[in-house]
């Protein structure tokens, strides 16, 4: 791969990250709080294959529930352990 190809690849990756960041449904601080909270509950109580802990967190924060849930599902967060693993990973890679 020559220098021009590397530059195009880096620019493409940068654009992909920017697109992903623009789609985040919450600020980085709130997403960090969501993922930390869910991870702590899953570590302590396990995952019952619902988004019970995610839903509890959403009840205490004034953002659009449906928007956040849609974004989580788009990024593999169909239950609390997947929110912790998949959606959190997507956020970490792109923030």
What count of structural domains?
Answer: 1
Strand percentage: under 5%
Q: Would you tell me the overall average pLDDT?
A: 93
Number of strands: 0
Helix content: over 70%
Question: Spans with pLDDT under 50 lasting ≥5 residues?
Answer: none
Oligomeric nature of the chains: single chain
- Described by the principal axes of the CA atoms, the overall outline is elongated
Radius of gyration: 15 Å
In DSSP terms (H or I, runs of 4 or more residues), the helix count works out at: 5
* SSE order, one letter for each helix or strand: HHHHH
Describe this protein's structure:
- The protein is built from five helices and no strands.
- With 95 residues, it is an all-alpha fold.
- The chain has one domain.
- The model has no long low-confidence stretch (mean pLDDT 93).
- The two termini are 27 Å apart.
- Helix 1 (3-23) packs across helix 5, helix 2 (28-45) crosses helix 3 (52-59) and helix 2 packs antiparallel against helix 5.
- The longest helix is centred in the N-terminal third of the chain and has 21 residues, at 3-23.
């Amino acid at each position: 791969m020559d220098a021009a190809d590397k530059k195009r690849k880096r620019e493409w990756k940068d654009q992909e990250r920017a697109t992903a960041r623009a789609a985040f449904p919450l600020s980085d601080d709130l997403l960090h709080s969501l993922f930390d909270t869910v991870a702590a509950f899953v570590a302590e109580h396990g995952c019952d294959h619902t988004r019970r802990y995610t839903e509890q967190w959403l009840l205490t924060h004034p953002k659009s529930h449906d928007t956040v849930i849609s974004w989580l599902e788009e990024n593999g967060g169909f239950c609390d352990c997947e929110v912790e693993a998949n959606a959190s990973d997507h956020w970490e890679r792109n923030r």
